[in-house]
Amino acid sequence: MTRNSHPEARRRWRTALSCVLLLASLIVSAASPLSAQQQRRDPLNPLEINQLRDAMLDPEERLKLFVKFSRDRITKLEQMRADPKATERGQQSHDMLEDFLAVYDELNDNVDMYFGRKDDIRKPLRLIIEANTEFQAKLRALKTSPNSNAAEISQYEFMLTNALDTVDASADDHRKTLADVEEYMKHKKKK
What we know:
Layout: H1 5-31, H2 46-54, H3 59-82, H4 89-116, H5 122-143, H6 150-190
Helix pairs in contact: 1-6, 3-4, 3-5, 4-6, 5-6
């Protein structure tokens, strides 16, 4: 695969994955007794949206924000799952994983955008690569958690598998993109 098709291939893969996730979400929503109450909302709150808008012209800051917001979703998920008073943990886990994936996909789209513009994103890519390792470990821990029963797991298992697959694939992509950016910046300095 050539470097020029690399972002396009990732975009096509994520688009296909998004379609599958949307279809699965529709099926789950239709089967759920809460479907009348459920409405998809933006996974980002207004403060986060404003922070991203303010950082639009600063790739490093914007990518750092996406890492922070992704990490916040994972932390919130862990806190909810550790709370013995939490109710509907399966559905809440599903929704929080869905929010994590939405934010993480935006992070990937921004990496592609800044890479395509040939911005120097080496520093935030290193941060993203570190975060990927953290996200992989936390998602795997959720998958093997002894605190879940089969009925609960069935509510979020598909979303968890997709989150793990997305982070795993993206981790490889981010390392390749970092190597490409380093190569590009090396040639840019020589000119």
